[in-house]
Amino acid sequence: MRPLMIVSDRPAAGEASVTSPYDGRELDRVATANSGHAEDALAAAYALFRDRNSWLSIPERVQVLSRAAAIMQSQIEELTLLAASEGGKPYNDSRVEVVRAIDGVHLCIESLRGHAGSVIPLGTTAATMGRTAFTQKEPIGVVVAVSAFNHPLNLIVHQVGPAVASGCPVIVKPAGDTPLSCLRFIEILHEAGLPKGWGQALITADTATAEKLVTDERVGFFSFIGSAKVGWMLRSKLAPGTRCALEHGGAAPVILAEPFDRKAALASIAKGGFYHAGQVCVSVQRVFAPTSEARNFAEELAVLADKLVVGAPEEASTEVGPLIRQGEVERVASWVDEAVAAGAELLSGGRRISDSCYAPTVLLDPPLDTKVSSLEIFGPVICVYGYGDVDDAIEQANALPVAFQSAVYCDDLNTAMQLSKQLDASAVMINDHSAFRDDVMPFAGLRQSGLGVGGIPYTIEDMQIDKMLVIKSH
Fold first, then answer.
1. Mean pLDDT confidence for 301-320
2. What is the mean pLDDT of residues 448-458?
3. What is the pLDDT of residue 365?
4. Distance CA 380, CA 336 (A)
């Protein structure tokens, strides 16, 4: 059993089994924490933050992160298999995630070294003459991070890495389905020299413990990745003064506009929609194509979908793995069945392959009031809609209360730029799928899709304050 990774002398509240989403086999057991453990973790972290003499210097933080990246580099295969087995993302994609996570740790170092205050332009009025002002960066306080299952290592790096770089004590609660990669990353940080109180992880025994952890008045910054329902609820309960960033989901729209490279668009959209079985917050979900193109495009996309290899995530040949829970397979199946019953044309998939896997599915023209058209699918389903007027496509793309990343495929730059301006999105990919992301980029959900800006440099900014010094000279 994986032990508690917090500063506490209390025995574990219990233990939880971590199982493979693909075949249900037990991968490990982890100790769980109750409200007393949450209190111990918060007390230890807050005591470190309040004792400014105990703060880790920038060179110490850089050393820890550098050593952690080196350890991770030496264990790429082990980390890949761990992430794939607990999260269900296929081996090759999980390996990419691990490499990204290592690069993310390096990016924390680079961002920290270049992250500086600024000079305030005093001396421009009689009242400010003889004064110089500048700002310096300081940690905001204790960081509590709650994470999601779909990128079990890289999401943790995005939340914990910036906290370490910023000099904040951090407590992270991983998703209950995928805690092992998180616990391993915290272990690696400790092996790299991070004192235990500066990086803690716990798997809560119940929701009350998680809520206590998040809403405590000692929390300086709350980082959340997960469902909108839970994220907005927790934000409403934060203690006064706690800052936060929320990253939720969307229903990413894609606009195809003539002229566009059909072959390139097909391959790109298939990857962006079926990657990790569609369990990505910016996964391609709604594709709007000219009416004259929609059926042919959808049928060719269906051919690609049918060729994808669905299977065990640890196998290098697998292209699409399981959904995270069997209940999610049932949900996706019911949504697709509803759409077909309402008039959508099923071109591929639309069936359970097993209790844990659902076939990559392409639907043509599902009604706009069905769940697959109006809610985040978070499964391997792509919907294609024909449009007669591109303005109608833009209106439909913007009609939902969620807005995150989107995409436009068009070889005419003027048209592509015009369409990108009209989309409600924090980012528009031109001739690339909506799920593209590099960890140096800003990553922000709009409206109900989130609050604040993710991306490692931006998270470091959130986790620090600007302290101004004003010097009066004679």
1. 98
2. 95
3. 98
4. 11
Distance (Å, whole) CA 318 – CA 310: 6
DSSP 436: -
Span of 123-127, 352-356, 368-372, 466-470 with lowest mean pLDDT: 123-127
Catalytic residue among 168, 244, 281, 410: 281
**Global confidence as pTM:** 0.95
Report which secondary-structure segment, H or E, holds 430: strand 427-430
Q: Which amino acid is at 298?
A: A
Instruction: Give the long-range contacts of residues 438-444, CB within 8 A, separation 24 or more.
Output: 439/100, 439/103, 439/104, 439/107, 439/154, 439/158, 440/107, 443/247, 444/404
Compute the mean pLDDT over every residue in the chain, rounded to the nearest whole number. 97
- pLDDT at position 444: 94
pLDDT value at residue 116: 87
51: left (phi over 0), alpha (psi -120 to 50) or beta: beta
Domains of the chain, earliest start first? 14-248+449-472 (3.40.605.10), 252-438 (3.40.309.10)
247 is catalytic: yes
- Which distant-in-sequence residues (6+ apart) come within 8 Å of 123 by Cβ? 129, 130, 131, 132
Alpha-helix residue ranges (DSSP H) falling in 321-437: 326-341, 371-374, 390-397, 413-422
Cβ atoms within 10 Å, residue 470: 11
pLDDT beyond 80 at 474: no
Task: Indicate if the pLDDT at residue 114 is higher than 90.
Answer: no
**Cβ contacts of 54 within 8 Å, gap of 6 or more:** 48
Q: What is the pLDDT of residues 136-152, one digit of tens each?
A: 999 999 999 999 999 99
* Rounded distance between C-alpha atoms, residue 415 and residue 123, angstroms: 48
Evaluate the CA torsion angle 444, 450, 454, 458 in order and state its sign.
positive
Catalytic residue selected from 39, 86, 97, 247: 247
Using CA atoms, how far apart are residues 49 and 45, in angstroms rounded to an integer?
A: 6
Give, in order, the Cα–Cα distances in Å from 384 to each of 236, 290, 297, 363, 453: 37, 10, 8, 6, 30
- ∠ CA(107), CA(426), CA(441), 5° rounding? 10
The answer to whether 406 and 423 have CB atoms below 8 angstroms apart is yes
pLDDT digits (tens, 9 = 90+) for 192-239: 999 999 999 999 999 999 999 999 999 999 999 999 999 999 999 999
Between CA 205 and CA 216, with CA 210 as vertex, the angle to 5 degrees is 140
* Dist. CA 420–CA 257, nearest whole Å: 11
